[in-house]
Design goal:
The chain is α+β, with helices and mostly antiparallel strands. The protein has two domains: 4-142, MutM-like, N-terminal (N-terminal domain of MutM-like DNA repair proteins), CATH 3.20.190; 151-251, Helicase, Ruva Protein, domain 3 (Orthogonal Bundle). The protein is built from seven helices and eleven strands. It has helices at residues 4-13, 41-48, 135-142, 156-163, 170-174, 185-195, 208-227, and strands spanning 22-26, 37-38, 52-59, 62-68, 80-86, 91-94, 104-110, 118-123, 129-133, 270-274, 277-281. Strand 10 (270-274) and strand 11 (277-281) form a beta hairpin. Helix 1 (4-13) packs parallel to helix 7, helix 4 (156-163) packs across helix 7 and helix 6 crosses helix 7 (208-227). The chain binds a DNA duplex through residues 1-3, 6, 33, 35-36, 61, 86-90, 103, 123-129, 166-168, 172, 175, 177, 184-187, 230-231, 233-238, 255, 275-278.
Length: 289
DNA sequence: CGTTCAACCTGGGCGC
DNA sequence: TGCGCCCAGGTTGAAC
């Protein structure tokens, strides 16, 4: 579920943990599958305890919490670690009570009496990953070879140079995190609608002006969705770190609107499957190149 | 190079 | 009510 705007909102909701010290970390009843945690849960828990939280940031769809090892007030890089959490479909970072206790995967208690007292990773489907990495691990997991330029700052040049010669459908290409980081299924559909481009069109058939449009709409749609704190669709879904629903779903023009009239022209919105993902489009409005 | 499929999971919605 | 099936915001690896 969480794409760039949702993960960005989670990170902003964690602002209060920066500068705090971790008292203890716990994987309640080992509810995270071992394969989704790196290194072993006991090692992660031990290393987190006592660490100082230096910063919280986002890389693509990942939450990155920078830590200084216990007792190292100086910023020696070799004592830095990064807690990288990938929420995947249903993961949430919360500083308040979770929707259910049974899907809490990681709890981090903070020292002191300031608010928040803790933060946690809650994940209903349990597909999310938790990694505690050193600088080399971070580079491998979130570096330029893994993640392309961030969607909020993507340019027409970026897209044209990375995807311009590709034979893939443009929608599939926008979901490729190495090309542009942070775009997922909802916003790919919305960006292409606003760009007036059919999601099935092959990248190499798009001209310069089209890539400029896609980049501009990507920046605009993602920024607006961040402003609206992400998309919450239905119950038991994405929430902000303090458990409020986002409002970006109110800006959706095509996603989830199959059978409903296009807000621009009245044509019925269609749902097709492209690259194994539901894809929504307006045949009339999405014909440009 | 690109596509397709299965897998990893839980739970909501729908048809019968 | 209950059951079975399909669907879901993501990612990965294998097969073709």
């Amino acid at each position: 579920m969480p794409e760039l705007p949702e993960v960005e909102t989670m990170c902003r909701g964690l602002a209060g943990i920066v500068g705090r010290r971790i008292e203890r970390a716990d994987f309640p009843r080992g509810r995270v599958r071992p394969l989704l945690v790196e290194p072993a849960r006991s090692v992660v828990a031990r290393r987190l305890a006592g660490a100082e939280i230096v910063a919280v940031g986002r890389r693509g769809k990942r939450v990155v919490i920078e830590l200084a090892a216990a007792g190292s007030m100086a910023a020696s890089v070799d004592r830095r670690h990064w807690l990288v959490i990938e929420p995947r479909m249903t993961g949430l970072m919360l500083v308040v009570e979770p929707p259910s206790a049974e899907h809490v995967r990681l709890v981090v208690d903070l020292a002191g009496s300031a608010s928040p007292r803790r933060f946690l990773f809650w994940d209903r489907r349990g597909l999310g990953t938790i990694r505690l990495l050193d600088d080399r691990g971070l580079e491998a997991a979130c570096g330029a070879a893994t993640l392309g330029p961030d969607g909020l700052g993507i340019t027409g040049d970026d897209l044209a140079s990375r995807l311009g010669r590709s034979r893939r459908a443009v929608k599939a290409a926008l979901l490729d995190q190495r090309a542009v980081a942070g775009i997922g299924n909802i916003y790919a559909c919305e960006i292409l609608f606003r760009s007036g481009i059919d999601p099935r069109v092959t990248c190499r058939r798009l001209g310069r002006a089209a890539w400029e449009r896609v980049a501009a709409e990507a920046r605009r749609v993602l920024a607006e969705a961040v402003r609206l704190e992400g998309s919450s669709i239905g119950d038991e879904t994405y929430r902000t770190a303090d458990s409020r629903p986002g409002r970006a779903q109110t800006m959706h023009r095509v996603y989830g609107r199959v059978g409903e009239p296009c807000r621009a022209c009245g044509t019925v919105i269609e749902r097709i499957v492209l690259a194994q993902r539901a894809t929504f489009l307006c045949r009339h409005c999405q014909r440009r190149r």
